[in-house]
Amino acid sequence: MITIAWNVVNLNFHANESLLAHLRHKITKLEQYLGSFAQDTVHLLIELRRDLKTDTYTAALSLRLADNILRSQQSAKDVKQAFDEALKGLASEIKSRKFAASQQQARFSDQPMAEGTGPQNYEELTRQQHNVHA
Question: pLDDT tens digit string along 97-109?
């Protein structure tokens, strides 16, 4: 079984334990598609941002896979709704790629990486992908 690392980056608000539990529960829907990748080539970056002027939330999910980075972004008045919609988009993108089936199971780690660790934005995730293949 491979364990997939993930982290959450917040801007203009704090993600409480309830929100983190919601995120962890929802991302498990992606696990079935990720077993064919090597453990160190997969990472999920969740960026959650609150726009103070409009009081809306934007969720951007970036999934680094061996040779690809898939990204989905959505905005809504509720952070969970923005995240759920972005997750649907990412799941749809994964399904459309028709990755090879694997006997190996994949599972996201129980907790996100500690705050401030792991890629903090899309550019860092992209840079890390290039370092994996260098």
Answer: 876 666 678 889 8
